[in-house]
């Protein structure tokens, strides 16, 4: 099946996070709106009843203090006068009933003439004691809010007046206010719905329409991958590392509080810090950081045309790079042997020709001279450099230099056993410095010359490599130790300028030092102290 026909099946959604939150918010808004509406309705009802209570109380007190009422109560038959007053006030105020009564509850007035003269239905004891009393009571006209006030003459209660409003009319007032309440509720619902929809839409975009289970599963998978891969991975946003897995923390030596700090404050090597800060695209670039040689890839993370940040990956290539250096040395040895074999073949042809010409003595002398010259070089290096790997390197470089037309001189003062220093590190130091020196010599004018001196004592090892080249092509010697500086254009992709960076790495690891003399040519002098506690190799 082709890739174009493949599809990824996903489990049916139970609803995205945004939809579930939208439904939850809508339900919450509906419940709150119902509760709020009920509370507002009850509060409005209570307010309307309180207003009615205050209205009937004020009117009852006013009637009880009215002089015409007092005059009527002194008459032999107060009823007719009080009915006239009640009708006039009732028409003017709109209350439902005004009942004047005797202290024994006998009604003088009532909206229903048929009950005049009958007993008033309700509580009058507080009024008989001289107080105004309010209550909600069911009388002959139905449930009502009423106030009963005493009518006093010279401090004596001579009659009572009750003023009331039926609850159905109070409810009518509330019904008239209900459209306003419903309009307010509708406005609140509309605003809440719009806000909920806006929040839901934003959340839907931010969560990519995924549901809670999908988000949880995605987080668990991503977290597991992030912390289980053997490569380091960091995410960079705004010039700061915002996320790093365990391997990246280990490789880069990041502090615990790395998150959100500028890259320049994290103590990364110059070239690596520059790469991460730039955010530029990088593929399989080699960088040196501390004791590690790392392959770094970096690219921006984009979605829908927006750059979300930059992510970079790191792979530790220290051992691989060291082996590569050793392999380069072996290749150099092989090339030297090939060159030597080629020259030996030429010499053999020359000797055979001499013999054929009857000059056997000259042929023997020629062969003896060549053998003695080659053997003297081998004997001198092996006798003075007892570390096999270093001796082999020097021999190989001598043959390489001879093939390239370079005079490689190993000084008579050279003497070293490599004690306390790893052979791999010796190969890295001497191999890279001699290679750079030969490259520099080739770019200069004849005669081309490279001079090597190695001295070792109880304090440490000193390696000096000089060349007859044009010298350093920079006014800032410290730049030569950066990854991108080189004496040549490296043919290997992404490997330019790594040799001197590796040299610097070895020097720093041993706590040594290096000086560079700018001319004529260039002279590198490296000093490595003998590490304490390391046994000498015999």
From TrEMBL:
<keyword id="KW-0067">ATP-binding</keyword>
<dbReference type="GO" id="GO:0000155">
    <property type="term" value="F:phosphorelay sensor kinase activity"/>
</dbReference>
<dbReference type="InterPro" id="IPR033463">
    <property type="entry name" value="sCache_3"/>
</dbReference>
<dbReference type="InterPro" id="IPR005467">
    <property type="entry name" value="His_kinase_dom"/>
</dbReference>
<dbReference type="InterPro" id="IPR035965">
    <property type="entry name" value="PAS-like_dom_sf"/>
</dbReference>
<keyword id="KW-0808">Transferase</keyword>
<keyword id="KW-1133">Transmembrane helix</keyword>
<dbReference type="InterPro" id="IPR050980">
    <property type="entry name" value="2C_sensor_his_kinase"/>
</dbReference>
<dbReference type="InterPro" id="IPR029151">
    <property type="entry name" value="Sensor-like_sf"/>
</dbReference>
<feature type="transmembrane region" description="Helical">
    <location>
        <begin position="21"/>
        <end position="42"/>
    </location>
</feature>
<keyword id="KW-1003">Cell membrane</keyword>
<dbReference type="InterPro" id="IPR000014">
    <property type="entry name" value="PAS"/>
</dbReference>
<dbReference type="InterPro" id="IPR036890">
    <property type="entry name" value="HATPase_C_sf"/>
</dbReference>
<keyword id="KW-0902">Two-component regulatory system</keyword>
<keyword id="KW-0812">Transmembrane</keyword>
<dbReference type="InterPro" id="IPR003594">
    <property type="entry name" value="HATPase_dom"/>
</dbReference>
<dbReference type="Pfam" id="PF13188">
    <property type="entry name" value="PAS_8"/>
</dbReference>
<keyword id="KW-0472">Membrane</keyword>
<dbReference type="Pfam" id="PF17203">
    <property type="entry name" value="sCache_3_2"/>
</dbReference>
<feature type="domain" description="Histidine kinase">
    <location>
        <begin position="343"/>
        <end position="532"/>
    </location>
</feature>
<keyword id="KW-0418">Kinase</keyword>
<protein>
    <recommendedName>
        <fullName>histidine kinase</fullName>
        <ecNumber>2.7.13.3</ecNumber>
    </recommendedName>
</protein>
<dbReference type="Pfam" id="PF02518">
    <property type="entry name" value="HATPase_c"/>
</dbReference>
<dbReference type="GO" id="GO:0005524">
    <property type="term" value="F:ATP binding"/>
</dbReference>
<keyword id="KW-0597">Phosphoprotein</keyword>
<dbReference type="InterPro" id="IPR004358">
    <property type="entry name" value="Sig_transdc_His_kin-like_C"/>
</dbReference>
<keyword id="KW-0547">Nucleotide-binding</keyword>
<dbReference type="GO" id="GO:0005886">
    <property type="term" value="C:plasma membrane"/>
</dbReference>
């Amino acid at each position: 099946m082709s890739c174009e026909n493949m599809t990824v099946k996903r489990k049916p959604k139970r609803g995205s996070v945004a939809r579930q939150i939208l439904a939850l918010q809508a339900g919450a808004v509906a419940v709150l709106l119902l509760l709020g509406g009920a509370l507002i309705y009850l509060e409005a009802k209570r307010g309307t009843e309180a207003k009615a209570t205050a209205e009937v109380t004020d009117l009852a007190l006013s009637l009880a203090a009215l002089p015409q009422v007092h005059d009527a109560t002194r008459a032999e038959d107060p009823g007719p006068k009080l009915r006239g007053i009640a009708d006039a006030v009732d028409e003017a105020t709109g209350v439902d009933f005004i009942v004047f009564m005797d202290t024994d509850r006998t009604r003088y007035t009532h909206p229903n003439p048929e009950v005049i003269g009958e007993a008033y239905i309700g509580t009058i004891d507080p009024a008989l004691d001289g107080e105004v009393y309010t209550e909600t009571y069911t009388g002959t006209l139905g449930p009502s809010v009423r106030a009963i006030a005493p009518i006093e003459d010279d401090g004596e209660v001579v009659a009572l007046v009750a003023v009331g409003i039926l609850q159905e009319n109070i409810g009518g007032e509330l019904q008239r206010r209900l459209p306003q309440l419903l309009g307010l509720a509708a406005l609140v619902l509309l605003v809440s719905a719009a806000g909920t929809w806006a929040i839901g839409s934003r959340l839907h975009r931010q969560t990519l329409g995924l549901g809670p289970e999908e988000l949880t599963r995605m987080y668990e998978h991503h977290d597991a991958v992030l912390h289980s891969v053997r490569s380091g991975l960091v995410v960079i946003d705004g010039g700061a590392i915002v996320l790093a897995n365990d391997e990246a923390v280990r490789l880069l030596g990041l502090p615990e509080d790395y998150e959100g700090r500028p890259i320049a404050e994290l103590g990364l090597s110059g070239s690596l810090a520059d790469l991460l800060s730039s955010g530029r695209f990088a593929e399989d670039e080699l960088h040196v950081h501390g004791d590690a040689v790392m392959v770094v890839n970096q690219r921006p993370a984009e979605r829908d045309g927006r750059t979300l940040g930059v992510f970079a990956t790191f792979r530790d290539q220290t051992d691989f790079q060291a082996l590569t250096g050793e392999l380069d040395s072996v290749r150099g040895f092989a090339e030297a042997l090939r060159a030597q074999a080629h020259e030996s073949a030429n010499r053999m042809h020359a000797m055979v020709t001499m013999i054929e010409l009857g000059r056997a003595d000259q042929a023997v002398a020629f062969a003896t001279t060549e053998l003695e010259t080659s053997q003297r070089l081998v004997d001198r290096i092996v006798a003075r450099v007892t570390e096999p790997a270093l001796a082999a390197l020097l021999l190989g470089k001598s043959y390489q230099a001879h093939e390239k037309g370079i005079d490689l001189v190993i000084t008579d003062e050279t003497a070293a056993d490599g004690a306390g220093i790893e052979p791999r590190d010796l190969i890295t130091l001497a191999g890279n410095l001699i290679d750079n020196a030969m490259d520099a010599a080739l770019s200069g004018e004849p005669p081309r010359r490279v001079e090597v001196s190695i001295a070792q004592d109880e304090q440490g090892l000193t390696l000096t490599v000089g060349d007859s080249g044009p010298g350093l092509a920079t006014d800032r010697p410290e730049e030569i130790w950066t990854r991108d500086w080189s004496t040549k254009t490296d043919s290997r992709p992404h490997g330019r300028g790594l040799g001197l960076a590796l040299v610097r790495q070895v020097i720093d690891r041993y706590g040594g030092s290096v000086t560079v003399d700018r001319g004529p040519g260039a002279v590198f002098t490296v000093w490595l102290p003998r590490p304490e506690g390391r046994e000498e190799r015999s």
